[in-house]
């Protein structure tokens, strides 16, 4: 595999808008091909991780990372930096269920795992995603990539790449901001409470936070997509 690496062929980051099934289809095709033609150079899987649910390869940063404490409790590694062995999974309800059903974590960590339902597991993953969203909003504030306060938002709507709207927003505020967002083709994500949004900006309660940086908006869009995919009731 080292003789002819093809990083561009497989190392290319998959589009964030693709769903798990699309990725499986594309990457699964490469994997099957690689198995059958051992004499030819296979895809470069360095830096890739296998999902314990579907067994396909993905970029590390596109997967949930799970670690295990000495007592056998599974923990979600929110920042992908926790020391020790990690297990990986797609942000997919099906892959979570598959891994738990087939006791894949016990085999990966080579120890008895405390029982956990798929629902509890999903909730832990959503908690980790929401933690990353709060971190991103706080860092965005420090980098000058966010604006908040209804008046400031209304004046700056044309500059926004995304709008985080509190789950506590009144119907009239929601309608007004969503209307402005629609006119400016600005995505709106419902998240958090007024108090916690304000805290992330080092301010008093805020009903919405505008994102003025495209890269930050893209990152948030990815996290909200992951959250929404896991939040849908099965
Ligand atoms: Zn998977």
Characterization of this structure:
- With 234 residues, the chain is an alpha+beta fold.
- The protein folds into two domains: 7-116, YlxR-like (Hypothetical Cytosolic Protein, Chain: A, 2-Layer Sandwich), CATH 3.30.1230.10; 132-231, Ribosomal protein L30/S12 (60s Ribosomal Protein L30, Chain: A, 2-Layer Sandwich).
- The two termini are 40 Å apart.
- It has nine helices and nine strands.
- The protein is elongated.
- The strands form three sheets. It has a four-stranded mixed β-sheet with strand order 6-9-7-8, sandwiched between helices.
- The model is unreliable at 1-24 and 26-34 (pLDDT under 50).
- The chain is 45% helix and 13% strand.
- Helix 7 (171-183) links the parallel strand 7 (162-165) and strand 8.
Number of helices: 9
**First-to-last CA distance:** 40 Å
What portion of residues is helical? Answer: 40-55%
Identify the bound ligands: zinc ion
| CATH structural fold name of the largest domain | Hypothetical Cytosolic Protein, Chain: A
What about the largest sheet?
4 strands, mixed
Q: Give the overall shape, derived from the CA principal axes.
A: elongated
Q: What is the CATH level 1 assignment of the largest domain?
A: Alpha Beta
Uncertain segments of ≥5 residues (pLDDT<50)?
1-24, 26-34
Structural class: alpha+beta
Tell me which CATH architecture of the largest domain applies here.
2-Layer Sandwich
- Can you tell me the number of structural domains? 2
- In what order do the strands lie side by side in the largest sheet? 6-9-7-8
Gyration radius, rounded: 20 Å
Q: Beta-strand percentage?
A: 5-15%
């Amino acid at each position: 595999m080292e003789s002819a690496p093809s990083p561009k062929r497989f190392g290319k980051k998959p589009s964030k808008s693709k769903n798990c099934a699309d990725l499986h289809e594309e990457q699964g095709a490469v994997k099957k091909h690689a198995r059958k033609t051992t004499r030819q150079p296979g895809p470069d899987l360095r830096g890739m991780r296998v999902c314990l649910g579907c067994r396909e390869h993905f970029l590390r940063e596109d997967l949930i990372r799970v670690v295990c404490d000495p007592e056998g409790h599974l923990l979600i590694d929110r920042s992908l930096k926790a020391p020790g062995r990690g297990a990986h999974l797609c942000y997919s309800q099906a892959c979570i269920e598959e891994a738990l059903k087939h006791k894949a974590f016990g085999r990966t960590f080579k120890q008895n795992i405390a029982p956990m339902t798929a629902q509890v597991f999903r909730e832990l993953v959503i908690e980790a995603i929401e933690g990353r969203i709060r971190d991103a909003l706080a860092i965005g504030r420090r980098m000058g990539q966010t604006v908040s306060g209804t008046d400031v938002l209304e004046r700056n709507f044309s500059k926004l790449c995304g709008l985080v709207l509190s789950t506590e927003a009144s119907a009239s505020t929601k309608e007004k901001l969503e209307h402005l967002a629609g006119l400016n083709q600005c995505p709106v994500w419902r998240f958090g409470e007024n108090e916690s949004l304000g805290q992330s900006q080092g301010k008093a309660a805020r009903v919405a936070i505008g994102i003025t940086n495209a890269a930050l908006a893209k990152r948030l869009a990815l996290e909200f997509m992951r959250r929404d995919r896991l939040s849908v009731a099965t």
